[in-house]
Amino acid sequence: MSNASSPVATSPQPDVQKASRVCLNCKRKKKKCDKALPSCSRCVESFQVCQHEDDIVAGNPVTAGYLYGGVSSPLGNPVQLPRQSPLAWGGSLRPSLVASIRSADNINLYALQCVIDILDSRQGIEQTILAFFEGPNASWFSIIDRSNFERLLEDFWTSPSAETCVLILCMSLISRPTISSPGPTPMGDTVYQSAKTLLSLVQSQSSRPLSTSFLQAELLVAMYEYTQALPQQAYLSVGRCFQMSRALGWQDKSYWGPNNMATIPKILKLHSILWWAMVYIDNHLHAAYQESKFPLHAPTLGLEFEIPQPETFGQFAPTPSQLQIQSVGAAYCDGNSHHIDGMVFPEATSAFNLNTALSPLDSPLMLSERHEELSDAVWQHTLDVFQTPWSTGDRSGAMSTNLIAMLKLNQSGLLAGSTGTDLRFSSPVENIRKAIAYLHNEAANLPSFQERLARGRVAPFWAFAAYYASLLLISHGETELQMAADWLQKVIDLKNMLHICAGRWKIAERYAYLLDQQLGVRLGTYVG
């Protein structure tokens, strides 16, 4: 006899506790919340504290286990944290939370929670890191050893480090696709504010506040401030880097002596890269904001020796014929740059070139013959970098820096009417025309330029280089530079490139505005 109609016995299902309202994280992100307790599925997936308005009103505490969806804290004993996201209001750090930081465990978890909340999830963090290493770290200036950083990440999700959290957040500042905000300055950018606040907080809680990681983070902040037209903030950030380098012993000649060369060459190489990255940003600030009269930091240190350039450690081959391909199948000069052994930094030579170009005209470096020799040397380095095969297509930071140095070195000769009588060297007019031609070629190929810009592979120094070249075209295009037929079209093309860059960098917006004024004055159409 069939028992198909008999009721089937079922085991009772456990009651699933549900919150009466959606959690604050899902509400803020406008995502669907399953209201599960003690943590909704979205908060479990993104490692976030699942919080509700009722908890905040009641002031209920939550253990660090809530960061991991109700499981035990990977750091051992649960740590008492306020039951609220540190960035629940507008993505900025809440001062009231700082008072709860009492231990190393707390600061590590606190920093992790801040970064997760800002970058949305673990996936968001991983995408930020990838964008940084394939964009700015590869094209602007390589200041972080990728392989070593990836080793740190292996244990990051089970044993978070506040230092690493800060570095990730600072990476995001310059690797985000669009970071310009409405208004005259980006001071309303809460990611920038949070990065600065978290950097200071973690340093104050760290047992080693003077470390390479903190210096790298400060350099990234300085670069962001430069790109967003915050020159005074950038100047202070770079100054802190130089002070940290003094405290770390880098300004002592013996630090770079044969003993350390023999025992810690990889560490010295990284520190050399960071030193020249500091000089690199310092000189760009001085060049781009000469009206502000920011004195260069390095000359004020009173060093009686020159910090060795990274190529001292055998990492950069100046020409394609001398490339040292170390891994099977590697086809690029920076094909092994994931490791400190293969990290390249042509920007060090470019920084030296720009530093020389910014030297006073009566200094020994700028004597007539030396001046012309340096100008040709800068152009040769530009060609070497241009002809070298790079994994990202070019080395945008070094190229734009060299072009600025070329324009600076030859502007004085142009104004003085120099004809370049010494046949061993190119004339100032010829050098400026070559630099402008390279810049204009980029401006005339906007689709390619926009694609690289979107991927973070165009250094922000292109903005000043384009502006500076445009000013020379406006003032000398019809006369000394002998470009009467097309100087105006070149300026318009460079201006269009600046407007495209303005979608990413405030400094490009600034130069686009100034260039519009200058061109209007030249054509008689500007109304002040």
Automatic annotation (TrEMBL):
Residues 22-52 form the Zn(2)-C6 fungal-type domain. InterPro entries: TF_fung (IPR050815), XnlR_reg_dom (IPR007219), Zn2-C6_fun-type_DNA-bd_sf (IPR036864), Zn2Cys6_DnaBD (IPR001138). It comes from the Eukaryota. The keyword Transcription regulation applies. Keywords: Metal-binding, Nucleus, Transcription, Transcription regulation. PROSITE patterns: ZN2_CY6_FUNGAL_1, ZN2_CY6_FUNGAL_2. It holds the Pfam family Fungal_trans. This is Zn(2)-C6 fungal-type domain-containing protein. It comes from Podospora comata.
